[in-house]
Fold each of these.
Amino acid sequence: MADATQTPPPEAAPPAVSPIKEELDRIRARHADAILGVEEQPSRGMFWINVTPRSIVPVVTLLRDDRALDYKLLTDLTCVDRPETERRFNIIYNLYSITRNRRLLLRVRAAEGEAVPTLSGVFAAANWAEREVYDLFGVRFEGHPDLRRIELPDDWEGYPLRKDYPAVGKRPVLLYNDVKDIL
Amino acid sequence: MAATETLTLNMGPQHPSTHGVLRLVLELDGETVVECIPHIGYLHTGMEKSMENEPYQQAITITDRMDYLSGMNNNLAYCLAAEKLLDLKVPPRGNAIRVMMSELQRCASHLLWLGTHAVDIGAMSVFFYCFREREMLLNFFEEVSGARMTPSYIRIGGVAMDLPNGFEEKVARFLAIFPERIDEYWALLDENPIWRDRTVGVALMGADDCIRYGVTGPVLRAAGVRFDLRKASPYCGYEQYEFEMAIGENADVFDRYRVRMKEMRESVKIIEQVLERMPDGEFNADDPKIVLPHKERVFSDMEALIHHFILVTRGFPVPPGEVYASIESPKGELGYYIVSDGSEKPYRVRVRPPSFYNLQSLPFMVKGNMVADVVAAIGSLDIVLGEIDR
């Protein structure tokens, strides 16, 4: 069937020059040891840059403020738990440039108990997103102005989106500690 | 000398204007908002965790319970992400049906927004007009899927079933009357001095602040930013249809209302074009390992029966990888970040709910405004707590 309606046309050959070459060059020029690795899937329009936790704030600030890159929108900030790896928490920063219509994902790997610098000073959007990652994964963000649980009650134990947290609980949930006093 | 003291007012979680269970702690100086602290999470049910424990196809039923006012859009965003992982191509008819459904859903979502927003501000009758038309739209969804709010109609690979007989004519009849009905809401509100007093210049939020807070959708466009994913990175063949992006200038509640009104008119245009050139043929991707076979074939063909059995009991494995796919939902950018480990169930599903980021900007928006404007501001954000709390 003629299928001209699909969005990305399949590429004949992988492009010789990486589509995110400019981003990589500019980050390398300013922060030489920030980049740990690059993953590219041009046919899906997906690009990840793995950076060190220490360099996340300067790298994101560079991506935001450089006029030629212009990643002004932090679309999302989330986490993937991979307990079998040494640094289990993959924090994913989803950046988008409205003017260039480009999407770039940054990945920071953090070990259990390791704090990641907060991005809330660079993007206001990161405030709640980081609170949610803290709430559901237990990753601490250093320097966050208001790091409290956001979805779950303040006295909740455990971090539900971790892979070692069961999907189904064993006891009924009593949401507030003061319920006993009322009854 | 009298000392001034601020008053702490608790608004919600059962306040009717908070559109669900949102709690705001307002710090008031007289009637002026000094501080606003939203508390969310009352509807948190661990939907992302539940999705990790369902086969890909069955996780669809969870998606439309997040933003329950635009179920079709939620189904679509999730399916697009899963199809990206599978490298699956949907045939033209499937795409056309998807576009039609997501635009009908956009109208339904905007109608509910308009009705409740007007009630919040004090215009009671608009609500009844809006719900008259929304009822017709929900009947369409019921006809194609059997459900009015949680259709799960869009599936990985296409849609659940073809359009029923005579459906396109019914939609065409609806499109014939809908623009006049939009004129009616327009006549009730647009020149209404009370409506204008309550909305013009209220809850301002300029383009830079919107982007800083990750605000997308009509709120961002009302600030004059030309960003609509249907134009920026078209999916399901949106590039074939002609429509204008609704843009505001003043970034206030009134412009957000104008943008959504315009979007409904543009949706009508899109659906008319879809009906005009609705392609024939298959509506599901041609991949028996992923898409359920036709029922007649299950009864007559051994191969189809086996596929049916395996797909229903076990699902299908998805190649390992990570993808992000997003669509322009009625509320803004709705994205899914799916991680697959090669099994039949997603390893991790992250929903990027537009309402979550839009609501985060509320304290900024209402600071310095009157307490009554908080109600107008919440309404203009068009939030759904189901997708904020998940």
Amino acid sequence: MTAKQVTRKISSLDKCRTGISGLDEVTEGGLPRGRPTLICGGAGSGKTLLAMEFIIRGITEFHEPGVFMAFEETAEDLARNVASLGFDVHALIAKKKMAIDYVHIERSEIEETGEYDLEGLFVRLNLMIEQVGAKRVVIDTVEALFGGLSNEGILRAELRRMFRWFKQKGLTVVITGEQGEKTLTRYGIEEYVSDCVIFLDHRVHNQISTRRLRIVKYRGSKHGTNEYPTLIDEHGLSVLPISSIGLNYAVTNERVSTGVPRLDAMMDGKGYYRGSSVLISGTAGSGKTSLAAAFVDSLCRKGRRCMYFSFEESPDQLMRNMRSIGIDLRPWSAKGLLEFHSLRPQLYGLEMHLATMHKLIRNFNPAGVVVDPVTNLTSVGDSDEIKAMLVRVIDYLKIRGITSVYTSLTDGGSAAEQSEVGISSLMDTWLLVRMLESGNERNRLLYVLKSRGMGHSNQMREFRLTDKGIQLTDVYVGPGQVLTGSARLVQEARDRAQIEVDRQSAERKQRELELERENLRSQAESIAKRLAGIGADIQLLQKYDTAQLQAAIQERRGLARARKAD
Amino acid sequence: MPSMGKRLTTQPEMTAEFWELRLYVAGHTPRALTAFVNLKKLCEEHLKGKYHIEVVDLLENPQLAKGDQILAVPTLVRKLPEPMRKIIGDLSNTERVLVGLDLRSRR
């Protein structure tokens, strides 16, 4: 055999997909095929549900029949419990794809009188497996045997025999076990089921209940080792892994408008990058929601869909407030381009919010998402947890190229930039709105604190909410002061007046000079005339002189001649 | 080894209580045989004339395990008189069998 052939023979572990949302990603393919997996956890942590979904989805999604050996609930109860999730167990049983056997063990009803083995159990299991041609088996929960029968030696030996039997038949088995005090399971079943162990945790923190899943062990495979938030909703169990394990998503050079033309101008003239994350932070009443609404308005105007998650105001209140500044969102909502989801953060845990957002975004497929405000979630989790949740949201949206805007309330006390250290690093663009107090009034200033990947303006602009929309104007920066609001208006008027005065004086000067020029010109003319006159005189004189001379000479000659004549 | 259905009574008598006993086994193992022998001996001694033993081989009839909720073998089920009682093991501990069958009170 060549080297290439040899390497191909060493195949990776064959995995059995569960179909449970997120679990297959976290286990990188599913549970180990042909091996037993242990699901342990406290009461009400979701073990039986996971096991049921494993079997049911195995049938409906992967065409692998399964059997469920239940020690705690009857088949009727089990079927009824999952009916609310949309699973019709009776139909599956009728179609001979699934079999449930309820084993009743009651210690008081049983008398142990000598040697025995658990062949009866095997017989029942085998019957079910052969009836449906099962590939998947669930035992829920094997610890009931320990509760009912007292001979632990026999029990453990039989359990070992059972797992060997399963392995021989190549069945993928899920065993559930109740959490023990110091051990993973109360009776230490993890000794036998050591190929894959998953732990389900259910705790209550600050009155909010959260569920977590952790893969304690998975022999022969790489797996996520962290605790993943899980939740149980009307579709069953979902595990929420961070969607992109590596930070690589495709980016685009396309831009979307911010909704305020002068703000676009501050950002290379074009606006936000499509698919980027934008943080708008500021103190109370600074106009964050208005900026977010302007973004939504501009997107909807182009016919794109938008989703608005509000943790503070109801949709009607938001729309009414935005109408007062000239942004009317009602037509978009009526056309179905804009969907609002408002709820108080305290209603659910962070995981539930995250999963709800995932689901809504997935179904609606918007081009833009607003979360307003993000800081309200502190009532449900601490800043680390919120950051972890936001990472997941941002990843999810970036992969889909959805532009997202998050508003964040900062308290007026600390410096505005300091309080955002947690989440600002996740954001591509950060707009800061600040209130400036001067001369008995407060005005809003806006500036682009950062915007990755573009040459953004570093100028502060005054930010006004008028009934015609959001207006950005330049601030007046004078010697040692920044003027906004009415002070700016006064100063601008003053400036205008000054300009007028200057202009007038310039005009006057010009007139004076022209007058002088006229004067000089006429003077020059008269001098030129006199010059010309003198020139003529000189010429005349010269002529006269020559003529005189000639005449004198003639006369002398004449005289001379006259004298010589006789 | 008697097969399913064969009656094993001695003299048919009209008694106040008639005992219906069912012994579940899985194949003709030595343990099953031991259980049957022990059971027979016990019945002859304490229930002479008013019992009926039925032996069910789960390897031949696996579907019957579900009805009486059998998981261990051998299991002896007292179907009559009521209430139902289940005794598991090869029945070698006669005292416990008697307690389990309510033929002797628990100490």
